[in-house]
Amino acid sequence: MSILIQQATILTMKDTDAPFTGDIRVEGDRITQIAEHILPQPQDEIIDGRNKVAMPGLINAHQHTPMSLLRGFSDDLKLMDWLERKMLPAEARMNPEDIYWGAKLSIAEMIRSGTTAFADMYIHMNEIAEAVKQTGMRASLTRGMVFLEDDGGRRLQEAIDLVERWSGAAEGRITTMYGPHSPYTCPVEPLREVIALAVTEDIPLHIHLAETKEEVMKIRERYGMTPTEYLEEAGMFEQAHVLLAHGVHLNRRDIGRLKGMRGGVAHNPVSNLKLGCGIAPITEMLAQGINVGIGTDGAGSATTVDMFEEIKAATWLQKLDYGDPTRLPAKDVLSMATRGSASLLGLQNEVGILEVGHKADLILIDLAKPHLQPVHEVESLLAYSVNGADVDTTIVNGQILMRGRKLLTIDEDELYREVKVRAKRIVEGI
Ligand SMILES: CSC[C@H]1O[C@@H](n2cnc3c(O)ncnc32)[C@H](O)[C@@H]1O
Ligand SMILES: [Zn+2]
């Protein structure tokens, strides 16, 4: 199968390239040509790129996909009340099939809004992996582990099984990580055990870090240090590739501890705003050479998983926080949502830029809309004016998952029927 996108405005996201008008050929799962004009071949599926921007798909670096079932169920609460009084009881009622449909709902929303890969941390990961496999998405999957009660090693065994069964599955679209949930849910012994496993197997780690002031206080009371120091003392930044979600409350010394680490920080600005957590020191981390990507967190807190909303929130928060509109300019925030997130998933040599030889994960954005005209600076439009509904076409691994806003791998009527019944049952009485 080959695809030829003709006469699009191409934004490769490579440092050396300005946007230009041209063609892109996709053969199998890879980009094989990018040029001003490419001769069509008889087998090509032609996509008209006029009035459209072709860019790398956005990469959501921190998700809890099945939480789409809990969207709008318990708003306007503090994080710990929200999590302990609402989310955890609801999650205890989710069966594996609910997880599958919740993940599929999130995946549908992500494909529709231009996301081509995501990092997920949740439970019942086999069902999420099946949803990824069937829908054609790319994902890095993590079995989240809370070590507050003894479970006879069940969670860790499930995490090990996930890694063994799904790493490299679905034509290589699925990768895996180990996921100790957070400093406040992981005492040092099991934390060290998971870090050792990750290092031995060279599997990345995915963990929440320093999301709230309460977390910082709790870890100070328990261990006499900051959450970042706690992870450092446990050996997390020595060898492993680590995806740190949030990193809101980091002091200057904490940022210094992350310098030179493998992996980096997934910024989740909408979730941080909605839960009143604070503003992460993104521009300071970038200035220190720390890799920063963007995620949504689950739809239970972010309310949508539209990465264009996150891009806007990320740049505007930095400008507001420092009283400086030059902070986190359009190009930089777009780079975070593509290349930065790709590095967090360990996929920087495969996705995140449009490049011959890279995997064909790309999106087309329709500019023939009043809010996207005229076109002065493409990057400015993408960062500040585009929203998820402007995405026309989504391609992952060379497969078209949405064309002309029609999903091609998901039956949306069936999806909404399943979700409605399941979501109602899960939250009843909570
Ligand atoms: C054990 S699977 C993952 C676990 O994380 C919970 N979760 C969702 N959002 C957040 C957040 O912002 N901070 C901490 N934990 C979060 C989710 O409900 C699952 O239980
Ligand atoms: Zn999270």
From TrEMBL:
The keyword Amino-acid biosynthesis does not apply. Zn(2+) binds at residues 62, 64, 208, 297. One of its GO terms (molecular function) is 5'-methylthioadenosine deaminase activity. InterPro entries: Amidohydro-rel, Deaminase_MtaD/DadD, Metal-dep_hydrolase_composite, Metal_Hydrolase, MTA/SAH_deaminase. Its cofactor is Zn(2+). It catalyses: S-methyl-5'-thioadenosine + H2O + H(+) = S-methyl-5'-thioinosine + NH4(+); S-adenosyl-L-homocysteine + H2O + H(+) = S-inosyl-L-homocysteine + NH4(+). Belongs to the metallo-dependent hydrolases superfamily. MTA/SAH deaminase family. This is 5-methylthioadenosine/S-adenosylhomocysteine deaminase. It comes from Paenibacillus xylanexedens.
